[in-house]
Design brief:
Elements lengths: L2 H10 L14 H13 L11 H4 L5 E2 L6 H6 L1 H13 L3 E6 L26 H16 L5 E5 L4 H10 L10 E5 L2 E3 L9 E3 L2 E2 L1 E3 L5 H7 L3 H6 L4 E6 L10 H9 L4 E7 L9 E5 L2 E5 L6 H5 L11 E10 H7 L7 E5 L3 E2 L5 E2 L6 E5 L3 H4 L5 E5 L2 H4 L12 H10 L5
Parallel strand pairs: 2-3, 2-9, 3-4, 10-18
Antiparallel strand pairs: 1-11, 5-8, 6-7, 9-13, 10-13, 11-12, 14-17, 15-16
Helix pairs in contact: 5-10
The chain binds uridine 5'-triphosphate.
The site of uridine 5'-triphosphate has 20 residues, from loops.
């Protein structure tokens, strides 16, 4: 892009300030900045001025989950259906590890966090150990796709390579990067993180399938014969991955997506809950749950919106291909964004200071016709590490790991 065209684009979106230091840059820095301006989608940034309009939901009604007793009664059948699919290579796993983990506050990728106490035990290692259980049961390796971002790709690959993938077969591990979006102040003005670099952050976990495609990895999916992708978050150290019972239940119930859910521990617990929205499966975020919905009861007198998602989904791959050209809703999230101040110094804020723009994997559910909410035992499968201490923290996850017999 030439300077004139960049200026026109910036003027159109009210972002001319990003050229403030242009004259001080070297030729290569100038080129890099112009290229970044060219590839950045600035049309979405103004959306932060009417955030509320983005959050509009349709008509919410309950969606029954498959509960533990039903799972127990059908366990053998689900297990054998699921294990067969895994043995036939029809199930792949996809780790969402492109997030910044700002709440945990470590500079390294979250998966590199050591949750061990008397020994080293990294988050990535916990996840791989969990996968190894199924690899052994099925006596086959499972393709593992790992999504990173520009911010943590190198560190993630270096770490896992040095650790020899914690015993996982590296031929079955495939990395790909998600796309980035600009990060702005509260007025929607893009921050600079260097004099010649717009501040960017990963574009949310909703872009995983298109990023997988953009990286050319759908070819691997297809040539391996993978029909189902188990997408999971990096931070839940207890979750079962490619769980044969879950896979079998989703297949047997003819659903195109399965979602692992836990029974909420309080009506106002901060998890997204499964529901129907305008008759299609959906997830309503905890802050969108009105008092009326929170207190609604089903036919059995139980809370009607009682199952929260844990970010472990099993997607039927061919259904996702149909969605590739569509778009997902935009979420505008307050974050701590490093930026250059007026004096050109880099500031790492302690408190949120602006917005990042994300699409979320949970919104993919609403674009699909059928979803099986599949209950798992919370203390066995839900130990997310979002913070250092308190709720959903290193501390709470350590306690659950120990409760499940993991030596720390
Ligand atoms: P979170 O919502 O916890 O976000 O991600 P985060 O960025 O990791 O952490 P905070 O909010 O800054 O503290 C849930 C899952 O989605 C992945 C994360 O890596 C995690 O596995 N994720 C999130 C991505 O892969 N890409 C993103 O852009 C955002």
């Amino acid at each position: 892009m030439i300077l004139e065209a960049a200026k026109q684009k910036l003027e159109k979106y009210g972002q001319e300030h990003v050229l403030k230091y242009y004259d001080e840059l070297s030729d290569s820095e100038k080129d890099a900045l112009l290229a970044q301006i060219e590839e950045t989608d600035m049309s979405i940034l103004a959306a932060c001025k009417n955030k509320e309009a983005l959050a509009k939901k349709g008509v919410i009604t309950p969606l029954a989950a498959m509960e533990l007793d039903e799972i127990e009664a059908n366990k053998e059948s689900f297990f054998s259906t699921g294990l067969k699919a895994i043995k036939e290579g029809k199930v792949g796993a996809l780790l969402l590890a492109g997030g910044m983990g700002t709440r945990l506050g470590s500079d390294d990728p979250k998966g590199m966090y050591n949750v061990g106490i008397t020994r080293e035990l990294y988050i990535f290692e916990c996840l791989i150990n969990n996968m190894m259980d199924v690899v052994k049961q099925a006596d086959t390796w499972i393709h593992l796709f790992i999504m990173t971002s520009d911010k943590n790709n190198e560190a993630t690959i270096k770490f896992l390579t040095e650790k020899e993938f914690f015993g996982y077969n590296k031929e079955y591990v495939h990395f790909f990067k998600q796309e980035m979006t600009a990060a702005t102040d509260y007025e929607g003005k893009i921050y600079l993180e260097e004099k010649g670099k717009l501040s960017t952050s990963p574009n949310g976990n909703g872009g995983w399938f298109s990023s997988l495609r953009n990286a050319g990895l759908l070819d691997v999916v297809k040539s391996a014969g993978i029909e189902w992708l188990n997408v999971f978050a990096v931070d839940n150290v207890c979750q079962r991955i490619a769980d044969p019972v879950f896979v079998g239940a989703t297949i047997e119930r003819n659903c195109v997506v399965g979602a692992k859910v836990v029974r909420k521990n309080a009506p106002d617990e901060k998890v997204g809950v499964m529901c129907l929205e305008d008759g299609k499966p959906s997830i309503v975020e905890y802050y969108e749950l009105t008092d009326e919905l929170m207190n609604a009861k089903d036919a059995k007198g139980e809370p009607a919106y009682n199952f929260g998602v844990i970010l472990n989904y099993l997607f039927k791959e061919e259904e996702l291909e149909k969605l590739l050209d569509g778009s997902l809703p935009l979420h505008i999230v307050e974050k701590k964004i490093p930026y250059l101040n007026e004096a050109g110094e880099l500031i790492k804020p302690e408190e949120p200071n602006g917005y990042k723009f994300e699409s979320l994997v949970l919104d993919m559910i609403h674009q699909l016709d059928t979803c099986l909410p599949f209950e798992v035992v919370r203390n066995k499968e839900f130990a997310p590490i979002k913070n250092k201490t308190g709720i959903d923290s290193v501390e709470s996850a350590r306690a659950l790991l120990q409760e499940n017999g993991v030596i720390l």
